[in-house]
Structure of EamA domain-containing protein:
Amino acid sequence: MKKGYIYIAFSTLFFSTMEIAIKLVASDFNPIQLNFIRFLIGSIILAPLAIRHLKGSGFSFNRSSILYFLFSGFMCVVVSMTFFQLAIVYAKAATVAILFSCNAVFVIPFAHFFLKEKLTKLSLLSLVVSVAGMIFIVNPENLTNVTGITLSLVAAVTFALYGIVGRKGSLKFGFDGIVQSSFSFLTGSLELLVLIFITKIGPVAAWLKSVGLVDFSNIPVLQNVSWGTAPILIYLGVFVTGLGFSFYFLAMEATSASTASLVFFIKPALAPVLALFILGEAITPNVLYGILLILGGSCIELFSDNREAKLAEHTRNATKHAPVHSGSVHAR
């Protein structure tokens, strides 16, 4: 258990610095280019752990599983993380970190409708409190950054959908989160590379520029990768994406899924503090109130998860130790 909390601490630190690290090199790289580089590196770092988990699991790649990973990779890397990268360009790192952490909140209704999971009163309360926190941060009365906030929320919602896709995949194919992330990151990176090459085609590049999508036109692959930018790229790919997810899944193994989810509950509070010291981003009263509400909503959901887990365990134990009554058979 102690080892599990060490994993949680490292994962929280890496995830909480993700937006800050991206912000530091945002002017050096195209958002899509940076997305491709960091997830390709992350998938390579996760691969040994994923292969180890596959040994003896009975899982084998076939047409169905490959199509699944292509879809989950598209949802995660191509869709959600592209919106995430663009959000960091248009909004403060702390704002993106807080709003993106709410993906766990969006999972609640999605899990109910798509996975038929039980929707408890505590889960609903968690959802309401967290949404109130988001409203404080967005501050509709003084909404000056519609683009950045919209991109952050779209990234959070689509990442929550990716989480639902991942759960359905793990139930269907029988693999765990490490395998899910490693191969989804790899397929998503390759899909993104194909799209990058398409944007280099003359007529396509010209059309994208004509409709105002300059960031999606003629996207570079390795441009500006140098000794100067290498440290941040290594940190993003190896530490944030690779080791961050590795420690998160190792924490699940050492503790539980509910306990490991503390990573996303601590991040909304830690990321703005780090952004204040590293990037000089001020924490306004509205943001502070929003952080407190989101942390409150997260704690309610954690309590709800633990409560449901204990009830399920109690039911299993009661069933296991229930006396078995068998009728007697009389021979004639």
Residues 285-320 form the longest helix (36 residues).
